[in-house]
Amino acid sequence: MPALPPPLLAFIRAAVFGGARMCLVVALHLGFLGGAVGWAQAPAATPVTDMEAVAIAYNEALKAFTEGKWSEAASGFEATMKLILDDRLPQVPPLVFMTGAAYFNGGDNGKAIEYFKKYLTKYPNAVMVWEVKLGLARATLRSKKYDEAIPLFKELEGVPAWRDEALLSQAQAYRETTKLDEAIAALVRLITPDIRTVAQAGGGIMLAELYAEKKASKKAVIVLQLLERKPGLVENPVGLNAVAVRLGDEFLEDKQFADALSSYRTVRPREDVIKIQTYRVSRTVAAIEANTKAAVGNPPLAAQLEMLNIQLKEQLDEAKKQFEEFQKLPDFGPGLLLRMARAYYEWEKRWEAVVVYERLLTKYPPGVKDREGAIFGKVIAYNDLLQMRRCQAACDDYFKEFPEGPGAGTVGYMSGAVAMQVQDFAGAEKAFVRMLEKVPKSEFKEEMRYLLGNARFMQGKFGEAVQDYIKYHADYPSGERFDEVAYRIGLCAIFTSDYAKGKTVMTEFVAKNPTGPYTGDARYRLLICEYAEMNYEAVIASAAPWLRDYAGHDQEAEVLALLGDSQAATGKLEDAIQSYQRCAKVAKTDEVLSHGLFESSKYLQKLGKWPEVAQMFEDFVKDRPDHTAVITAMFWIAKARAKQGQTDEAKAFLVDNLKKYIAEPKREAVEPLLLQLAQLCAKRPRPKTPPAPPATPPPAPVPAEQGAPPAPPAPAPPEPPPLPPYDAVAELTKQMRPLEADASVTAKARLLYAQAELLRQIRKPEEADAIYAEMATRFRPADLSPYLLAQLGDFMNFRGDSEKAALLFTQLKEHYPKSDFLDYAYVGLGEIALAKKEHEKALELFTDALEKVEANSKAKEGTIGKARTLLALKRHAEAKKLFEQVASVKEWRGDATAMAVYMQGQTEADQGKYPEAIAYYRRVFVAYQKYLPWVAKSYLGVADCFEKMGQRGDAIENLREMLRNERLAKFPETEEARKRLQAWGVAA
């Protein structure tokens, strides 16, 4: 039996052990041993029972082996060896090895181990001893005899060709026996100094898993990042992704957020995995094609390459199967992004979480399952960030895409709660009504019922709010908000001016809740009820115990203000002043502070206590130097000094303080100081009276002689010399000189304003208007203060330059949204829009001026503008209601009242209700005779109505009455009346 030739031996080694697979494939080409030929040439003395039978048995076994018929091959090799009587023949060791290999490939590890051990025992120096040791190690490992397998693989670690497999297998065995440190050590040796092979990449994946199990997060992430840089060596990117995700999840659960994110970032996106798998398939196909091409014309190599192609085809089939299964799976990208967003969120990096959610929503279109989680996550994150507008928008997005989503209940509640926080109370009401109807068993039902009442309460829907609160009481008698709801029912009564009911409800509430978070406010509301009913003594009596019981309470300043108001109403001015001053010291809002400060000032002035006025405001400036009312306080300090005859000191005080603020456009009280300076300069200062000389006793009377003439009368004192002419303009110029040095553009505009106001004081309005016109054209709107923008905007609008006025108003509206003069902008722009017949725009501007803008300097003009706009839109009922409101406001009585009555007539006439219109017109020229422009218009209105009613005679008589009124002679309406009479052919 001849020995195996070296080329065949090398091929066996390469084919059987060339890869780190757990399957032994002995790739011998059929017929290489020559069948009967190879054996027939053996010497006659060969101890073989039947040479022909040996050859046949061997070739059949070999054929079965190459066809993967492992049991048949093993039996064939065993039968062959039985025909050989001398097992020392060189052909026997390969047969022993191949028998073990056949059993191994067939899964019979016990028989494989038996033959491999037999080989090593009988043939320890045979040429294939290392291949056998590898087979023994593999079979032992597959038999789960880990402790026996480890030393076998350790011995193989020194063979370069098998080092990777030896270390990998050791790690596997150690891991199975929970010896994780030893497994890690083996894998570290495997990938040191670098990952250069597919096997090492596989070991890297296992090492990352083990580090994760050992909580060695930093090391695990380092390995993953190393693998990320070796994409060509990772044959199973899906598996690597799974490890990275699992590792990230474990880190996330352990609150190791940075490591979790690092792990998630190593996950390759779906498109990259597809590219890698596609390349792997194409690379294997190319290798098969190359082998097939190389085998042409080379029979000895053909069998070898054919067996190698069989192995490659198995790999190809496996790769294709994995690829097909992967393509059937949904994209893992959205889920990965959700994990990353969760990591950022739990790490309290809410903005980063939002960015990841947005990335998911941008990259993946509607229909992707994880979009629901992303939008829900945005809702929660924005809520935590107090980005209520964005949170509200995210809630809307959720309901648009997932109206029945799993988070709809929570999002619906949050939609309403967030709307409450951004003061969108109508939106909150809508959200809560919808959720209470659609999800009647919501876990948030109690809170939503309570908040629904609050949403309606904040909209002034007090009746509906009370019904919600009553229902809350009925449904939740032990509810967390029960007491607060009872208190709110009382508030609803008070806010609807039902003070009797409010007092009853609040009294009951205080009796049931003598202490509690709402008791102090409830007792304060009782004071309001008493004040509204003019029970001032009751307020005074109840305020003292309130102040004793609730010192430092949020409403302390309000109670002091109410006490001061009641004391003032009962004539206790000294007490009222003290209460107001205490109010100003503890006030927490500017509104209450101003009330206390300026009411105190008012009554001090009434009592003539100007030094106290000055001292109070000086203390305020000292205590609150940065308060916005400081400049206003300076105004009163200067006025108090002037009232005490200290005019020069008052001027100096104003100039010194104007230096600090005149260049700051946002300081809105600068202009009042300048106006006050102009007023002080407009009048000649009172000459200081020189001190009277010391009195001398009159001379003793000398008795007149009998018959002597009487003494002549003492001469009259000489007339004082006339005072020199007083130049108010020169005085103001002198006072403003320190302010002109290095004056900014804003300061220069303000100084011109002071000059204009002085000219108005000395009755030179034309010159003042010229300066206003200069200011409007000389300065950019951006250079002007809110006060000047408001005043110049009004001035230019009145003069008919609506374009320039619009620029000024727009600057005020867009750049000073918190200005006290903001309503000038809305009303002015509304008037411009109305003049252009842009009625919808005008209506929006007037409505915003009245409802959204806190400033109310232009409340009258805004109401009139809105009413006129509604009339232009033919919304007669609404227009008439507003005109009635204008006519009824006591503070607006005068020209506005006459105008409002006239416009009510216009409203009726526009609807064809001529008798009603005539009644309003006549009311104007009867009750408001001194407002001649409206009287003139009303006469024409009456004539128009009579004419349209077919009563020309009455129209003629009405116009003649108009012409008899000499005070109307110069009005254009009077000329129109003459023309009408002439057209009708009647004499005036």
CATH topology label of the domain at 1-142: Serine Threonine Protein Phosphatase 5, Tetratricopeptide repeat
For the record, the CATH class of the domain at 1-142 is Mainly Alpha
Q: In CATH, what is the homologous superfamily of the domain at 1-142?
A: Tetratricopeptide repeat domain
Got a strand count?
Answer: 0
The major beta sheet can be summarized as: none
Shape: elongated
The share of residues in extended strands comes to: under 5%
Task: Give the mean pLDDT.
Answer: 86
How many alpha or pi helices? Answer: 49
Distance between the termini: 153 Å
CATH architect. name of the domain at 1-142 = Alpha Horseshoe
What is the helix content? over 70%
Helix and strand composition category: mainly alpha
Radius of gyration: 51 Å
List unreliable stretches of 5+ residues.
1-45
Structural features:
988 residues; mainly alpha; Serine Threonine Protein Phosphatase 5, Tetratricopeptide repeat; 49 helices; disordered N terminus
Structure write-up:
- The chain has 988 residues and is an all-alpha fold.
- The protein has a domain at 1-142: Tetratricopeptide repeat domain (Serine Threonine Protein Phosphatase 5, Tetratricopeptide repeat, Alpha Horseshoe), CATH 1.25.40.10.
- 71% of the residues lie in helices and 0% in strands.
- The termini are far apart.
